[in-house]
Amino acid sequence: MKPQSDLSDNILRSNTSIVGIVCKDGIVMGGDRRATAGNLIMSKREQKVVKISDYLVMSATGGAADIMLSEKVISAELRLKELKTKTRPTIKEAAHMIGMMLYRNIRTPTMLPHIVGILVAGFDEDGSTALYTIEPAGGVYLVKDYDANFSSGMPFILGLLERTYKKDLSLKEGVELAKEALKSSTQRDSGSGNGIDVFTVSKNEIKQVVSEEIVPEYK
Length: 219
Fold this sequence. Notes:
The protein has helices at 3-12, 64-85, 91-107, 154-164, 171-188; strands spanning 18-23, 26-32, 35-37, 40-43, 49-51, 56-62, 116-123, 129-134, 140-142, 146-147, 195-201, 206-213. It is an alpha+beta fold. The longest helix is centred in the middle third of the chain and has 22 residues, at 64-85.
């Protein structure tokens, strides 16, 4: 099977909604809580936005086991790099390190390719913030406005943000926009839902600002 076919098939099955939004005073990152196995909902409480260090937060799309392993390995590799160099990696350095890991993973001969797409955001020691998207094949791109990587909710999220995103949003406005984008996605993407989590990244802090369950309403 061709690698491109592997990517296309896994992207269609990613069953996740994640979003990153660049604001004038930081970054907003959010995700839904549903974990699925085909048509079966396996969990309604999976937090898909995770702090991997005091200065970095990530969200991912792909296989649940691959994502969990990636979170642990990335956190460990960043800590090792920090200990070896006695300096804290920048967001750019961390993003490119993650990209190299994903590049190697997808090109290592195996029966089950490790395919994960990642959004990573954080703040550097000078107080600047940045958001990067890392595609499942390992490409690393600086995000200047917003992105949803290759999550299954991406078409709905990007469709909404195309007409509602404005440059120089405040973090507060970005949080509300992220909530709206995720809720819009959960209305149409069967692989997304049950709740949303939203984090903000400012010049010296990563903070969870939304932890909200989505419950059905019967009339």
